[in-house]
Each structure stands twice: as C-alpha cells, then as structure tokens.
UniProtKB/TrEMBL annotation:
It comes from Monopterus albus (Swamp eel). GO terms for molecular function: cysteine-type deubiquitinase activity. Signal peptide: none annotated. One of its GO terms (cellular component) is nucleus. SUPFAM superfamilies: Cysteine proteinases (SSF54001). Residues 113-220 form the USP domain. InterPro entries: Papain-like_cys_pep_sf, Peptidase_C19, Peptidase_C19_UCH, USP, USP_CS. This is USP domain-containing protein. Residues 1-22 are annotated as: Disordered. One of its GO terms (biological process) is protein deubiquitination. It holds the Pfam family UCH.
C-alpha cells in the first residue's frame, strides 16, 4: 500500500505560479496560462508588481471587477429601424402630412358645449367628447378643410364629425343634442340601435374606422 500526502501536492495552477480563485471567471490553457481578465482601477497601474503573480497571471485584488469573456445575451446588436430606402413602397395616398401635425391647440378655445343624454346615449356622448377634445383632430376639423375637398355624396363620417365639433365650440356654455351623429348611428355600425345601451369603446372604434374609410378612395 502506498500512502500519498495530499497536502504536499500542488495543483497544476500553483506549479506555474497562478492560483485559481473561486472568484475568477476564465479558463486555463493547456500550457497552464490563465485566460481570466481583470479590470483594474485607476489608482493602480497595470504594470504594478503587486498585480503580477509569479507565473505572469494577474491575480485577484480588492475592488477588481471580473469580466466574463463569453458574450452576454444583452449585448445583441440593435435592430435597424426601417426607412424608406429598405424597399417598402410609399403610400399611394397620404391622409395627413406628418409635418402639419400639431399635438397642441393651434388657438385658444373656451370649453365647448355639453351633450344632452338622448336616452341611453351616454356611451356616444363620452366618445364624442374624447374625440372633440383631441387637439390634432379638433385643429383639423375646425379648419373645415375636409368638407372643402370632400366629394362623398352619401354618408361621410368625417363631415359628420366636423359639423359636430364646430357646433360644440360654437355653443360654449350651453348644452346641445348630438342629433347629427345619432341620425347616422346605424351607418357607423349596423348592429347599433338607438335607445340601446352600447359600449363606449366599441362605438369609438367604429367611429374612427368610419372616419378613416371616408378618407380612402373606392368602395369595399
């Protein structure tokens, strides 16, 4: 039987003068050289003898930061933003030029008229008030620009909404009846019924959709 004194043995790393610390992040090559990288503070030069181990490997020091050589999952290249030069066709028709868009009120207005409940029309009133006090939309509607160029002979939600917004700001301090929108309720959505309790968000979505369709050429 052969008894081996484990305490007298030195590891391969110690034999080349480089101790492996549990805080080191790196690998040891076949020749015993260390591949761990350490970031040193500005108060200690990189060629300081205190940082050099007998085998030429940098050892750990207080305040040192370990950088893993493996690429991190957060170091991914940023996705390139699509631009007009990426092969995407330009729109056939621009409904409203972005250069003309103003998110603030172009002129000061007094608080507009309130809307009378015509019988379970609170869903309609609340949605109309949200659209009326959306500055970019109201700025455009108050210029009457749409009605000057509209050639729709029948129902046009843009013209209906324009007339409503103009009427609201023309009757500040009063209460008006949204008859113009109520009369077109079934054209906004076929399943809407006058006098029925409807969902305000659903009405808002159908109204905005009808406004967009009024600006697009052609039929279904």
């Amino acid at each position: 039987m052969t008894i081996v004194d484990r305490s007298s043995e030195k590891s391969d790393h110690e034999s080349v003068g480089c101790k492996r610390s549990p805080f080191i992040s790196g690998d040891v090559g076949m020749d015993g050289s260390c591949s761990s990288s350490w970031a040193m503070g500005s108060n200690m030069p990189s060629d300081s003898p205190k940082l050099k181990a007998p085998g030429g490997c940098l050892g750990p020091m207080p305040g040192a930061t370990v950088y893993n050589s493996a690429p991190s999952s957060v170091d991914r290249p940023k996705e390139q933003v699509m631009s007009s030069g990426d092969g995407i066709d330009l729109p056939q028709k621009v409904l409203f030029s972005p250069e003309r868009l103003n998110l603030k009120w172009t002129q000061v207005h007094r608080i507009g008229a309130g809307l009378q409940n015509m019988g379970n029309t609170c869903f309609l009133n609340s949605a109309l008030q949200c659209l009326t006090y959306t500055p970019p939309l109201a700025n455009y509607m108050l210029t009457r620009e749409h009605s000057k160029t509209c050639h729709e002979p029948g129902f046009c939600m843009m013209c209906t909404m324009q007339n409503h917004i103009i009427q609201v700001f023309a009757n500040s301090g009063n209460v008006i009846k949204p008859i113009g929108v109520l009369n077109e309720l079934k054209r906004i959505a076929k399943h809407f019924r006058y006098g029925s309790q409807e969902d305000a968000h659903e009405f808002l979505r159908y109204t905005v959709d009808a406004m967009q369709k009024s600006c697009l050429p052609g039929t279904k």
